[in-house]
Structures are given as structure tokens and as C-alpha cells.
Amino acid sequence: MTKPLSLDEIRKEITELDSSVLKLLSRRRELSLDVARSKIEVTKAVRDQAREEALLVTLIKKGRDLGLDAHYVTQIYHTIIEDSVLTQQALLQQLANPENRQPVYRVAFLGDKGSYSYLAMRKYFSRICEDLVERGCSSFTQIIQEVESGNADYAMLPIENTSSGGITQVYDVLQHTTCSIVGEMTLPVEHCLLTAAPTTENQINTIYAHFQPAQQCSEYLDTLTGVKIEPCDSSSSAFLKVSELKDPHVAAIGSADGGELYGLTPIKTGLANQKENFSRFIVIARKPVEVAEQIPAKTTLIMSVDQKPGSLVEALLVMREHGLNMCKLESRPIQGNPWEEMFYIDVEGNLRSSNVQSALEALTRITRYLKVLGCYPSEEVSPTQVPLEKLPLPTGDNTEGSSKTKTSSAPLVSRESQENTQIRLRNVTIGGGQFVTFAGPGVIESQAQLMACAQQVKEHGAAVLRGALYPPQLNLDNNLPNQGQTLQLLREAGLRYELPFVTEVHQPDQVAEVARQADLLQIGARNMQNLELLQEVGRTHRPVILKRGLMASLDELLQAAETIMAQGNRQVILCERGIRTFEGAARQTLDLGAIPALKSMTHLPVIVDPTHAISDINQLAPLTYASRAAGADGIIVDIHPQPDTALSDGKTLSFEQFSNLMSGLSA
Ligand SMILES: C=C(O[C@@H]1C=C(C(=O)O)C=C[C@H]1O)C(=O)O
Fold this sequence. Notes:
This is chorismate mutase. This protein is α/β, with parallel strands linked by helices. Among the domains are: 39-96; 192-271, D-Maltodextrin-Binding Protein, domain 2, CATH 3.40.190.10; 415-469 and 480-666, Aldolase class I (TIM Barrel), CATH 3.20.20.70. The chain is built from 20 helices and 25 strands. Strand 20, helix 15 (511-517) and strand 21 (520-523) form a beta-alpha-beta unit. The protein is globular and about 80 Å long. Ligand ISJ binds next to helix 1, helix 2 and helix 3.
């Protein structure tokens, strides 16, 4: 028998492997730069998603043969491909703008080391130049002045955030600048509570924060009582203050990476109102840049229009007539002209292209003021997803040719009112023709159980993680997670495996908190006619799965959907989950006929939960295939590492049975 390697020997081998991995990554980067050069000659776009998909399919297969799971391989390659695309874009931009090339750039930004603008600046320029001279500033006006006066080559400015929206002071300084926007980047922003001395959250009585992060964490801050919020110029000045005070009662809000530069430790993370909190930054320079044709470009303009009915609509119609996708529209008061607005518009398109040029000509004729703030490369590299079926079967619109039923007392859900509703959750579309699987534990029992399920969900190409809280009234075992813990666990699993997740709401007062964290809400069969709950869910912006009551007719189900939609939330997914009949073989009988019937009555997506309508787990797969054949948009299934011990009251698949089901669906 060979002697096992010592820890030192194992580590030596790992270090050697890691150096080889780095060499290979560096060689891959060189090759993608060669690819970029070859794309200049043939004017081919940098991004080729068909090639990426084919590559991912091959790599996932190879990875599986080597014992690596698909999620791991996909995550790594999304990062590698993003780097490859951005590196190619940076090269093509340099070649298109040779006069701008310098080894060192001077960059102005808000705050000092550790601020969010600082982190964005380091990330953006790492691809572009060898070194930076940092010009920290205390206001947005000062930042712009640094560039206008020639003290800095570039400025990095935050422009919008997914929690707090547009950063109005930045829009206002853009109204008067002579500078141009030459780039953009998006940064994930994870706000933490950081302290300099060992302490706990409930000892904190003063929090130092810049206005923007404080606004993005407003819901968390509102829950605190007796805590003073001290405003600061930037997150870095908040860090500095807290590091100087070294007081266990004092904390700062900012990033963990930034705080580390000041010796601060996070005591609480995930403070932002939105769980996916991102900030978009723009890069400003004195002169505009050319954007290479191979790169997706954005053009930003500002305009004001006549104060008469329809003048804004007329201007926006110009974009439509020229086939330009508008990805942003903001308005700000024109300084000095009370009640007049300046509109800021981002369109996808290169300023040099004929459609952008002729749109601008048309706009010049109908606007009072029009200025291009810049044309720059779009840095959004959305990860390419490999579809479950390589050749997806169109389960889609089985309603073609069917009569359109008018549901007169439910006008919003009625098929007459519109084409099929499609609901997007990150990269998943429900109701778009793909059959979507929702899978996860019926009851969340522990972190280990949920993580194991989430890993399976991802590995087998199911699209949404589901998981429910054990009903509190039945919860005699205090070791089970409570509502707050359940949400936190789902959030962790969702982040780790990049899965949107759904969980159930039982009472109106739970809705706001669940909607803040979950991607999708669920109303259970027994609550289908809970008017207050329906209305509360109707007031949120999250899509909702509405389960059919076990004794409800299809009309009653549609009425319940109408109640939600009447409050404003139009993103309802109907779910057939079995109804009470005289047949007692299973708890309920799956009404397969409801699927095509609903499809003819409404434009809403329809999914199926067969969990309670089977007496044996082996009946689940046939009912899933039948649901797909009948036109359903998806299926909900329970999975569990040890189904025999599952606390869920429905029938639960083992991981192996789930794997077989997913292979069956992709065949
Ligand atoms: C390298 C290329 O450019 C891009 C990057 C890819 C990659 O890094 O594998 C794949 C396709 C393109 O989106 C290419 O076209 O092959």
C-alpha cells in the first residue's frame, strides 16, 4: 500500500496545479485577444452566444465525466467568458481610439480608498491601463471640475442603483458639463454594518453612512430604534470616522472590502432593500470616444421638448421608428426654468450608425434642446444559459386556433384582453414556450437539507428553487427554522446556486417581507379565496403562483387572479394542484382538463403541482409528461435527500427519482 501524502505534499501539488491553471487562463486570454483581432477584419461582433452555448454544453458534459457538477463548471466559465468578452472589448476600444492610450491615468472619484466609486474605478481601469493616479474628491461637482480643468483624465460617477434609483445629483451635473460619457460599468453593492471594536448589533447607537447607501438600506434602518444616523461625504469617510473612534457603539455602512482597508469588520451583511443591489457607474472624459463596430454600444442624450400635449410621445416615437431600443428614461428639473424637465435617454446603438444619426436628425427638428452626452461600450455581459432541452419542444401556445373565451366578470385575466403573459425571473421565462421545473423541499428542515436540494435543482436544469416554512401552528419542534430563518436560508441557497426562489405567503402581514426577499410568491390552495391576502399580494411587484382551491371552479380561480391583478400586479401564474372528487385513491384528483381549458380562458401561464394528486411517487413522472402534453408551462415537485423522513405532507421525489424525471423531460 502506498503511503498517503502528507499535508505539505498535498499542498505542494495543489499550488503547482493552481500555477498551471493560471498559465492556462493567461493563454486563454491571449487567444481571445487573437480572436478579437480576427473579428476586426470580418467586422464580426465580439459576442457570439451560439458559440458560448455550444462551448458550455461541451464543458458541462466533460466536467460531468470528471466528477464536476454543472453549476460549478458553468459558474467558472461564465466568469472566464465575461473576462474574455470585456478584454476583447477593451482591446478593440484601444485600437479604435489610439490617441487616448497612456500607461497611467488620473481618475477622479467620490471619497477615498474603499468607497464604492473607488472599487468601481479599480475594477474598470484594471483592464485598460497599468496604473492609476487616484484623485479622491468630496462632491460630484468637484469630480467633474477635476476632469474639465485637466487635473484628471477620467471621472468615475455612480449614476443609478437598483434599490434607490437614479442618482439625481449626478444627472444634474451632467446637464452643464462639457465632458462626455465614454464608458460604463455595473458593480454589485453589498452593504454591511462594519465596526472597529468587537461588538454586537444591538449595542450600536450611531451609524455613519453616506446618503446613498443609507437610502438603499432605508428599510433596515427603519427597523432600528434609538440609533442616530450620521451623514458622511462618502463611505470611505464613514470608515475613517469609525476606525478613529474605535467605539463598540459606533458602526459604518459600506462594503466589506472597503471596510477592510480601514481595519473594520462586518457584523451584519445584506442590508440593502433589494437583495440584488447593483450600482451602475459612468466614466467621463473631456473628449468623446469612438465605439468599435464589433462592440454593443449605448448612446446617452439629453433633451427638452415643447410644453404641449404629446411632444414627449412624439420624441419617443422617433426611437421606435428608427428601431432603437431605449433602455433608460429619466427626467430632472431644468435648473433655472421652474417646472420644465430635461429628459435623459439611453438608447442601444452606436452614434456612428445610420439609424442613430437619422433619429438624431429627426429629434433635432422636434425638440427644444438636444445634446449627445456620449456613446460608449455597453459592459453588460449577461451570462449565456444552456437550455434544458438542446432542442426545446414547443410546449408553448396550445391555444392556437382555440376559441377565445370571454371571461366578462374578469376582464384582466381574460384571454381576450391580451396575448400570452410571459413572466421573467432573472434568466427564466414562464409562459414563453419552455417547460419550467420548480423543485425543492416541500418543507425546509435545515440548511444542509435545503442546500443539498438546491444543488440538485441546479445540477438538473430545473429553473426555480421552491421551499416552504413548516406551518408554525404545527411546529412542535423548535429546531425547525422560523420564517425569518427560512427566508435567509432560501436567499443563501438562491445566491449560491444562482436560482430564483419561491415561497408561500399565508397572511397579509407577511407579504411585504417575503416580497422583499423572494423572487416569486405563492398563495396556497386553502388561501385561494383569502381576499385580504390576494389584495396584499396584488400590491407587490413580485410574480405570484396562485394555486387552485381544492373545491374551486376554474371561474373562481380566475376571479381570485382578477382580484390580485386589479391591485396592479399583473404577474400571476395559475397552478392546478388537484381537486376533491369522489375518487379516493389519492388525496385529490389532478384535473388535467383544466390546463387546456384555462389556456383558452386566460392569457396567464398555467403550471401543475401533482404532489397531492398521486398515491405513489411513481405516478409523478407520467402526470408531469401529461401536463406538458396538455400545454402546461411548468411543474412543481418536492424533492428530499431522504424522502422517507420528509416532513412535507405531499409525495416527495428522491434525488435519483428527480434526476430520472429531469432526464425524461430533456429527452
Ligand atoms: C473568444 C470568442 O469571443 C467571445 C468569447 C468567447 C469565449 O471566451 O469562449 C466565446 C464567444 C464569444 O462570445 C469567440 O468568438 O470565440
